[in-house]
Amino acid sequence: MAKHITNREQDYSQWYLDIVKEAKLADHSPVRGCMVIRPNGFALWENMKEALDSMFKETGHQNAYFPLFIPKSFLSKEAQHVEGFAKECAVVTHSRLKSVDGGVEVDPESRLDEELIVRPTSETIIWDSYRNWIQSYRDLPILINQWANVVRWEMRTRLFLRTMEFLWQEGHTAHASEKEAVEETLQMLNVYKTFAEDYMAMPVITGVKTASERFAGAVDTYCIEALMQDGKALQAGTSHFLGQNFAKAFDVKFQDKDGEHKYVWATSWGVSTRLIGGLIMTHSDDQGLVLPPKLAPTQVIIVPIYRNDEQRAEVLDYADPLINELRDFGVRVKIDDNDNTKPGFKFAQYEAEGVPLRVGIGPRDVKNQNLELARRDTLEKNIISRKGAAEHISSLLETIQNDLFESAKKRRDEMTAIVDDYETFKKEIEKGGFIYAHWDGTDETENKIKEETKATIRCIPFDNDLTETGKCIVTGKPSERRVLFAKAY
Length: 489
Hints:
The chain has three domains: 12-92 and 107-283, 2-Layer Sandwich (BirA Bifunctional Protein, domain 2), CATH 3.30.930; 300-399, Rossmann fold (3-Layer(aba) Sandwich); 416-486, 2-Layer Sandwich (Translation Initiation Factor IF3). The radius of gyration is 26 Å and the shape is globular. The chain is α+β, with helices and mostly antiparallel strands. 35% of the residues lie in helices and 28% in strands. The longest helix has 26 residues, at 389-414. The strands form seven sheets. The protein has an eleven-stranded mixed sheet, sandwiched between helices. Strands 18-17-19-20-21 form a five-stranded mixed sheet, sandwiched between helices. It has a three-stranded antiparallel sheet with strand order 4-8-5. A hairpin with a 2-residue loop joins strand 6 (97-100) and strand 7. Helix 9 packs across helix 12 (389-414).
């Protein structure tokens, strides 16, 4: 265990905060509930953003940008939407300050005619634009994504997992038919699943939310749910079928091929910097952060080991061709030849920061034409030949990526139970993990379980293996399929 990182078994919450600190991902800011994302954390977010952005564009989406401020009246146009976000909104009431006795205060004469809401999400401001963009079926579909920040006035915050301001992407699409909009919703859910599993090495379960858990203003909300090492679930991404709710609220119609005017159909979907929290809690250990190679800002760190200038020159000359060869393989590699820091300190630093592979090179390695490799995920070390090293390292990074996914999946499966009665459910949920159980489909039963156990229905999974009929664990009423329960972040 690293010196400054709390043991997970001792205090999981503190372990998480220690990882964020020691890996230099983020700091608390002077503004309560907000964070400063440090270069290591932002580089990780940039890699996530780059991969997702490419996937969005491959599915026909374009990026745009909409205002940070939303007129208050816009939020009142869709009743469910405003009710869902009313308690989380930051409101701008004045436009300037004035100097008073060496300080500043709000100028009462600058009060706005209409208050502005700092966006908690952008459906309303975007649909106001869509009203101007859409006249005919020829204007559809509109497939827009926005990379932005949003503000939700959270009372209890935790770095990355829940902050008042966070970074995210939000997709907003408009379609001519219900079928096309539903297909879009499910397509983007699958994009999120692919990203989570192929890039984050984080296994997820896909499904639809219950009515009480769906997005404010949506007809249906679909999600990907992941299980963290402490047995709590993390909602890692959502995709919403909005029906015609926002089109009707903002009077967005199109003329179809028959000349008939109809309301358009809508979707929205998003993931945020919360994914970094999910990444931390899926893979990291008591030594620090563990990163999957596909997302790691630095995939390979080379640490030269020497005692004098002559050895230093010899080692660096040996390392230079390797760096070029690795870059030819597309590997993100760096060398740390800082003379002011000892190799042992560097080893600990890069372990804490989660660099997937460390290459140590000393005079003996130069003499023997070898390299020392250290895997971050398993902490295993081994000696390899310099000949063919770049290809070996490139292949090993793929192995690490796959091993991280398989390890996380194995852990999730071991922490998943199938339960048929309420007493067993209450015992199992205290252990943490996913539970598949029957539910009678009523809000009353869902709320009772939540109040008594703090577990929520994470989703009604798509998995066909769960469609067997049974009886609700609480009421004994008929149930057509099992649903997924867990305590959650």
